[in-house]
Amino acid sequence: MGLLKLAAIVAVGVSLLPSDREKQEQLYARAANAATWTLTFCDRNAETCNKMQTFWAEFSKKAEFGAKLAYDVMRENGATGDATERLSAPASFEAPAAERPIYRRSGTLTPHDMKPAWRGKTANKDGI
After folding, report:
1. CA-CA distance, 90 to 87, in Å (whole number)?
2. Which of 47, 83, 95, 128 could form a disulfide with 99 if both were Cys (CB 3.0 to 4.6 A apart)?
3. Domains of the chain: which residue ranges?
C-alpha cells in the first residue's frame, strides 16, 4: 500500500511539471536560485547563525543529559525489579495477573469470546 501511495505522489508531481521547454528552463533557474539562497543564509545572516549554533549546542547537551538520565533510571529499575509493576495502578484496584483467570489477563474477553467461530460448511442431518 505504501508503494502505491508513493507512486501516486510521484505521478502527481510529474504531471505538475511544465512541458514547454522555456517554462522548464525558468523552473530550473528558480530552483537553482532558491537552493543558492538557502545555502548562503549564514553568509548573509551571520549573527542569526551564531545564535542558532549556541542554541543547538545547549539543546544537544540537554538532550544528551535527558537520554542519559532515562537510561540510568531504566537500568536501575531493571536491576531492582519490574518497572511496569511500579508504574501500574495500585494492587487494591485489581488482583495480580497470576491470580486472575486467564481470560481476564488480556482484557475483558470471556472464554466464550475466545472460542473461534465455525467457518466451515454445516453438515446435513445425514452427516454428509
Report:
1. 9
2. 95
3. 26-114
